[in-house]
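Retry 2 of 3 after timeout on previous attempt. Resubmitting structure tokens to design endpoint.
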């Protein structure tokens, strides 16, 4: 139950993918940690993120024409969900299973996916001379940037690059007058522009359209100029270089703040984040020295941590955890994925709570 992290052996990142670029720009240290831990997360993903991989795989199979009929769809979808559930159980996340019950919108997302099936099949049969290329790998001449494009539609001189997203594509933004408007997320815009430049390096032609398509089959065009794509491409390469250089100089560029760290699965290995946790109590993670452990009559266990002058209470541990917590009294620990309770400095353990020493 008490997890440990050994020494972090940083390794050079050989290649950056367009989908990774934005995250690397926000915190290059996260990319270095991911590489050091062979892209094996140190914390569980949310069940929605796991399910997202199934949705994306299904879109890929539909785009490739492997899943054509509704029967194909149902059989493949059940197979994918079953495999994911088995994997989750093996990882010790059996509490996410069955996904059908545990995930809100499971049924809705399945119905939305099916809409892709019908329309994509119709498109392919009715527009026979258009070339659909799905899941095509493109990399730069120097191999430093590379990634798989979900779908390229080539119709004479018209070339469209499409990326499928299973979550929200837009976000609310504020205009100069303070009015809220909705716009495609910057990370997705930049990802597509990098694909456009990779396509150009491989074919000597720029795509004419870049689009994002969501589960509900809504299409969001992304405007671009060739110059913009080239600038982002150069920026990505120089970011990769400076990130790799930081391993030698040990002057890492980390950016610990809520929007970067909240979903970072390498938080347990990040000293910058731990420093932040010493004074910032807004995260769903806490650290401190174990001062006391109490077992209540109903079996619930509470843990009392001291972080500097602050006393933190973490409730809702199970009875089985009492002995180990008690054995580790006076030890400095970090607890990830707790729930903030209404009362200040009081938290609760959840299904995904993980302790690192
Ligand atoms: S925890 Fe935050 S600062 Fe640390 S690597 Fe992750 S995103 Fe960067």
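Retry 2 succeeded. Sequence:
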């Amino acid at each position: 139950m008490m997890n440990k992290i050994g020494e972090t052996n940083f390794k050079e990142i050989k290649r950056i993918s367009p989908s990774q670029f934005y995250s690397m720009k926000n915190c290059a240290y996260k990319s270095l940690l991911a590489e050091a831990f062979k892209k094996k997360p140190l914390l569980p993903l949310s069940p929605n993120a796991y399910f997202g991989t199934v949705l994306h795989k299904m879109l890929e199979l539909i785009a490739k024409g492997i899943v054509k009929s509704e029967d194909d769809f149902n059989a493949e979808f059940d197979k994918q969900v079953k495999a994911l559930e088995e994997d989750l159980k093996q990882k010790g996340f059996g509490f996410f299973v069955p996904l059908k019950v545990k995930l809100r919108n499971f049924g809705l997302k399945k119905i939305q996916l099916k809409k892709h099936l019908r329309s994509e099949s119709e498109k392919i049969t009715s527009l026979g001379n258009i070339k659909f290329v799905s899941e095509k790998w493109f990399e730069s001449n120097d191999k430093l940037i590379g990634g798989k494009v979900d779908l390229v539609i080539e119709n004479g001189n018209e070339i469209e690059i499409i990326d499928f997203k299973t979550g929200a594509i837009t976000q609310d933004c504020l205009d100069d007058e303070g009015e809220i408007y909705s716009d495609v997320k910057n990370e997705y815009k930049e990802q597509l522009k990098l694909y456009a430049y990779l396509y150009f390096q491989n074919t000597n032609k720029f795509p004419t359209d870049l689009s994002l398509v969501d589960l509900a089959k809504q299409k969001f065009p992304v405007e671009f100029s060739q110059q913009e794509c080239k600038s982002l491409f150069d920026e990505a390469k120089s970011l990769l270089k400076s990130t790799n250089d930081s391993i030698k100089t040990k002057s890492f560029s980390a950016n610990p703040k809520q929007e970067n760290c909240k979903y970072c699965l390498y938080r347990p290995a990040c000293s910058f984040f731990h420093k932040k946790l010493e004074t910032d109590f807004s995260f769903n993670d806490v650290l401190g020295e174990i001062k006391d452990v109490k077992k209540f009559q109903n079996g619930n266990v509470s843990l009392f941590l001291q972080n500097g002058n602050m006393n933190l209470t973490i409730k809702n541990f199970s009875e089985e955890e009492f002995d180990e917590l008690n054995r580790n009294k006076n030890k400095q620990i970090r607890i990830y994925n707790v729930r903030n309770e209404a009362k200040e400095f009081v938290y609760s353990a959840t299904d995904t709570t993980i302790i690192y020493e």
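Attempt log closed. The mean pLDDT is 92.
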